[in-house]
Amino acid sequence: MRCKRKKSKLQRKIRKYIIILFLLFTAIIVFFESKAVPFQEKYVKTQAEIISNNSISEAVNEVLAEYNFAYNDISNINYDDDGNVISIDTNSKNINVLKTAMNEAVQDKLKETNVEVLVHIGLFTNLSLLSNFGPKVKFDFTFVGSFNSEIESTFESAGLNQTIHHIKFIVNAKIITLAPDYSDAIEYTTDFEIAQSVIVGDIPATYANIGKLS
Question: Where do the structural domains in the chain lie, given as residue ranges?
Fold first, then answer.
């Protein structure tokens, strides 16, 4: 009889510990889930902007290296007999070739980008001491990108009677980030120097703010 009572008491203790462990485990899951959702939104958005920007930069730089256009392949400065700048011509054909190649390269690069990020679960606590502790949680996300681009020409004073002519590729990107239970849109503008040249002499006023070339 006494043995049965001991068994019954032991079983109640075991059931009690199991319930406590289950409640504790559930509380931990709920805690980290509540932390993971806002963390995911903030972290994935930041990572998406960094990675998509790097992808665009990589695509543009690959095109620039492939075509290797010099300043004179894109723009030509005409002087009069006294050495004054009278006109600046642009090579529309080469500009359009570059722009088309860059647009295609950026689209292809973004299509290839599938991201898998592993972060320690301790990072969810927002405590720096625990940020590298605990098992890792995986975040997967992909990009859907839309953007428009133009090639822009600007002039910068470089001292007495000297002007730097910049020709830049401007990308206005809208990147939609897709992750499980989460999606967001990022919009940003980035630019890349295609070519530049130092012009000696006065620039005609009509070229002071030439702006977009295409």
Answer: 2-212
